[in-house]
Amino acid sequence: MLVLGIDTSCDDCAVAIVKDGQTILSSVIASQNEAHAEFQGVVPEIASRLHTEHIVPVYRQALEEAGVEESSLEAVAVTARPGLVGSLLVGLSFAKALAFSRHLPLWGVDHILAHLYAVQLESPILYPHLGLLVSGGHTILAKVTNFDQLEVLGTTVDDAVGETFDKVAKFLGLGYPGGKAVDTLAQSGQAEAFRFPRPQLKPGRRPYDLSFSGLKTAVIHQRESFLNPGFENSLPNVCASFQKTVVDMLISLVKRAAQETGISTVVLAGGVASNSSLRKEFAQTTSLKVYYPSLPLCTDNGAMVAGLAYHHLLRGDRSTWSLNAESRVPHFKAFSHTKS
Ligand code: KG4
Ligand code: ZN
Q1: Measured from the CB, is residue 105 less than 6 Å from ligand 1?
Q2: For ligand 1, is residue 178 a contact (CB within 6 Å)?
Q3: pLDDT in tens, 75-108
Q4: 2 - beta bridge partners?
Q5: pTM of the entire predicted model
Q6: Distance (Å, rounded) from C-alpha 263 to C-alpha 81?
Q7: Would you call 102 helix, strand, or coil by DSSP?
Q8: Atom 14 in ligand 1: residue holding the nearest Cα
Q9: Cα 33 to ligand 2 centroid, rounded to whole Å
């Protein structure tokens, strides 16, 4: 089955064509990084407007690169939630129009599940496993029991990991998005230079919830007070120490979850899953079986959407024309467990 997958959940306009949930025939991404760089963050209004400019050419390029005629497409999949509503609506409207005019089935995908599926496009991983989604918008640890089922064990209660990288990078003048720049600079720094705090959550939170805002503040506003004697207050040292703190927090969380659930297979997903130190430390300091997608499948892409949708479509799941964009998915929200 040839499935077209569209993701316009944030700032990247991504369209891919995937065969049978496995073989990527094309995956085209129009990045908007340049347009948002001067604001050091995604401006939703600009993002949605650029999606309207990009969606048709990106779609045409995806068909061309795959060597596929529009008439050969068998289904349309699109990210419907969570994300920036204005951005989501562009992909959604395009997907609906295409599916309607071509009489194709439509499936609205959850972006979180799609990220966690991405690795399956490269090597099938058995369920259940632990999924750690670390991106610019999300930080979620979940027990993934099937392609469409997960139990959220914990989330960030404030900033997402990627957002924390981006804010630290912005403060250090490393550009936007800054995760990769921090990662690169950290390689020439000393991780033991700063002893940054690891935020402790108050009792009453879920045991796997995380917080990054205290660490961000410490790095941005008080770093001198965390400098260990004999070390230089240099950019590479700040980056290396900050990154090590984040990586240690994530790894100890996953190790604890693995011990308590008895699940030793872990899937990493999202932009921060491409962090070199995170990958290295998982391999060197744990005995867990850790899988992560190749770099283009870590960040937002249409292939993960088409791949995941294939399994839904195969069992007959269909979205109706009333499918709408949702900015949030309630059970992915931090604190949701304390509100009911
Ligand atoms: O998954 P993604 O493309 O977008 C969201 O769905 O949010 O992730 C983008 C995030 C950005 O915050 C970026 O700075 C971060 O991933 N990122 C990294 C690295 N590469 C990208 N963070 C740390 N180290 C990296 N190598
Ligand atoms: Zn994403």
Answers
A1: no
A2: yes
A3: 999 999 999 999 999 999 999 999 999 999 999 9
A4: 19
A5: 0.93
A6: 28
A7: helix
A8: 179
A9: 14
